[in-house]
Design a protein that fits this description.
This protein has 169 residues and is α+β, with helices and mostly antiparallel strands. It has helices spanning 4-10, 24-35, 54-63, 87-104, 120-124, 155-158, and strands spanning 46-51, 75-82, 108-109, 112-113, 130-139.
Length: 169
């Protein structure tokens, strides 16, 4: 298992997956990571639908404009939220916890969606009072990926000390 900072430093989006099942223990840990994430006022406004059925995964891939590759993943977790003030923020935190937990086990993912997923509700029996925020396809990366090779702005361009514009060195 990797250290937290290494996970953050090396986490990359994965959009192609091996035809290999993710073990149930890892799936459980991924979902638990989401469930255990902090939440404003402890409201926990999230629901996680774990999908492994091939036909349903294909349908999810067809519904997700930004993630047709979901159809090829061995697993997806659909994140639905209650429509409350902090739900998007809280669920985003939970999603990141799930992505990092998967990554620490060698399982890749990516955030699919963020709006435009209304047709997922009837497919998965999600009540209309909930909004599907994201689909997270998971699987072992099909391609060798360079862990940590990210194109990011330098720290000095985004971090400031005490006041905006004062370099963080």
């Amino acid at each position: 298992m990797m250290e937290v900072f290494d996970g953050i430093r090396t986490l990359l989006a994965v959009r192609r997956y091996q035809d290999r099942a993710v073990p149930e223990t890892i799936i459980r840990n991924i979902v638990e990571a989401g469930r255990l994430t902090g939440s404003a006022m402890n409201l926990q406004p999230w629901h996680f639908v774990v999908v492994q059925d091939r036909d349903t995964l294909r349908k999810l891939g067809a519904l997700a404009r930004s993630g047709p590759y979901t159809a090829e993943a061995p697993l997806a977790i659909v994140v639905a939220i209650e429509k409350t003030g902090y739900a998007v923020s809280d669920a985003s935190r939970a999603i990141h916890s799930m992505l990092l937990t998967a990554w620490s086990e060698g399982v890749g993912s990516n955030w699919v969606g963020f709006g435009g997923l209304e047709r997922v509700n009837p497919l998965l029996g999600i009540p209309a009072k909930l909004e599907v925020l994201a689909i997270l396809p998971f699987g072992y990366p099909a391609d060798k990926i360079g862990r940590g090779k990210k194109n990011r702005k330098p720290l000095g361009a985004v971090a400031h000390r005490e006041r905006y514009g004062q370099p963080f060195e």
